[in-house]
Write a structure and sequence with these properties.
With 287 residues, this protein is of the alpha/beta class. It folds into two domains: 2-224, P-loop containing nucleotide triphosphate hydrolases (Rossmann fold, 3-Layer(aba) Sandwich), CATH 3.40.50; 233-276, Roll (SH3 type barrels). The chain is built from eight helices and 15 strands. The chain has helices at residues 35-43, 91-96, 111-117, 133-145, 163-179, 191-197, 215-221, 225-228; strands spanning 2-9, 12-19, 24-28, 50-55, 58-62, 67-68, 76-79, 151-155, 183-188, 200-205, 208-213, 232-242, 248-253, 256-261, 270-276. The protein has a six-stranded mixed β-sheet, sandwiched between helices. α4 (133-145) runs parallel beside α5. The longest helix has 17 residues, at 163-179. The protein is globular.
Length: 287
């Protein structure tokens, strides 16, 4: 993915230069810095002043070459901050609304795969108006995936959710990353999301990209404590054993065994473990 664009909206000017081969890339910055504007330009919903946008070798926009593909030819799936589901339709019909944009010959997930991946089966016949915030977000992601995009644009997908729902949606995004062959551009103003999910990120400040690199590196050199906010990361693991009496489960995460209270877990289950920086103690030698 290569972005080299100049965007003007009223008195706001944005210069974005970011090139990455990362499977999951991210745009980080304070609210109002222009992150959503960049996604809209990539999706073809906003035309840059000049520059170029190239995804997987295909030019979606070039001011010099006078190329500006319409949104339906860009193969991007867009999950908006405000979700934009059809309130008068069921979850099933909302999901299927994404399919007309996809050619049958285009590789990508089908409805059963998306339903299983995002745990949507119990929701399929429910009305959108009856869903929780986390459930609505999962349906929005599923509908975007069913357009069979080569690039999934996620605009603050955890915003407006409480801590528990944030962790749940992040776990589904980790599963998506592992299971599907689709690039993701993730937008957020929360560093913890990037530490868990993103391979490479760009920081937008004062109308321009000021830093690029891996999230942990940028956290060390480019972000102060106030900008970074509370730090937390999520790792995946496998349940190795469960004590039926206490509900304690042993979960193996990257070679480390953790004891967690998971009374409903079964041996072999996949587990997602969130760890806050304040919960980690580092020491040298015996503790």
């Amino acid at each position: 993915m290569s972005l080299d664009t100049r965007i003007v909206r009223g008195g706001f000017r944005l210069n974005v230069r970011f090139e990455t081969e990362a499977r999951v890339a991210g745009l980080f910055g304070a609210s109002g810095c222009g992150k959503t504007t960049v996604l809209m330009a990539i999706a073809g919903l906003l035309r840059p002043r000049d520059g170029s946008i190239v995804i997987d070798g295909q030019t979606l926009y070039s001011g010099r070459q006078r190329i500006d593909l319409p949104p339906e030819r860009r193969r991007t799936g867009y999950v908006f901050q405000d979700d934009r589901l059809f309130p008068h339709m069921s979850v099933r019909k909302n999901l299927l609304a994404g399919r007309p944009k996809a050619s049958p010959a285009t590789a990508g997930p089908d409805l059963p795969e998306v339903v299983e991946l995002l745990g949507l089966d119990p929701l399929m016949d429910r009305s959108v108006s009856s869903l929780s915030g986390g459930e609505v977000r999962r349906v929005s992601i599923g509908r975007a995936l069913l357009t069979r995009p080569r690039l999934l644009l996620l605009d603050e997908p955890l915003s407006g959710l409480d801590a528990d729902f944030r962790r749940r949606i992040l776990a589904y995004l980790l599963r998506l990353r592992r299971s599907l062959d689709v690039r993701i551009l993730y937008v957020s103003h929360t560093v913890s999301d990037f530490l868990t999910l993103v391979d490479e990120m760009a920081i937008i400040r004062n109308g321009a990209v000021t830093e690029t690199g891996r999230p942990a590196e940028l956290l060390a050199r480019a972000l102060d404590e106030a900008e970074a906010g509370p730090l937390e990361t999520t790792v995946t693991g496998t349940v190795e054993a469960v004590d039926p009496g206490s509900g304690e489960a042993r979960v193996r995460c990257d070679g480390v065994a953790l004891s967690l209270s998971l009374p409903e877990a079964r041996v072999g289950d996949e587990a997602f473990v969130s760890v806050g920086a304040h919960e980690v103690l580092l020491g040298i030698g015996a503790i």
